[in-house]
Amino acid sequence: MAxxxxxxxxxxxxxxxxxxxxxxxxxxxDTSKYDGEKDFDLDASAFLLLGNDRVMNDSDxxxxxxxxxxxxxxxSMGDDRSGGSGGDxxxxxxxxxxxxxxxxxxxxxxxxxxxxxKQNFGQVSNAFIRIEDESNNNEILRYDxxxxxxxxxxxxxxxxxxxxxxxxxxxxxxxxxxGLEAICKNFGVNVK
Length: 192
Fold this sequence. Notes:
Elements: E1 3-5, E2 10-12, E3 22-31, E4 42-49, E5 61-62, E6 74-76, E7 90-95, E8 105-112, E9 124-133, E10 138-144, E11 154-163, E12 166-176, H1 179-187
Parallel strand pairs: 1-10
Antiparallel strand pairs: 2-12, 3-7, 3-9, 4-5, 4-8, 6-7, 8-11, 9-10, 11-12
């Protein structure tokens, strides 16, 4: 049975699961159409972070335009431009055994692609992140975002983080105005 988390809660991911290496991080959401506007295109991203919560370089951002980390430890399963498919809208795979030792955290985010100012997370509902053990397809944990982000166009949903030899998960739920660019700046990715 999966562990259900609330904002700010942390849980051991690998403790008691000695063989856990390959995980699937599923992110999902529902959006509402309004006034005949186009579908939402939300994008999941992962940032591999050093101990100072900053990337080492721009290749530490894994997303639709750069779907694979150079280490082979994190990769995006593609961009779902319409969502609403039920279940996971986008997925990111992680091989914990391949994450270089200098990275202490992997931050998972979702951002709205449309930066026109007409779309925001106030129009997004049922957003979640879940982690599944790829070896047996069992869901380990799930965090359903209950917050109301009325102006924000991006959300830092949660993070895997290293504590000694173990990996843990933190349910974050922090909103950002400014979409993916704002989150990139927060984690030290150069935005051109």
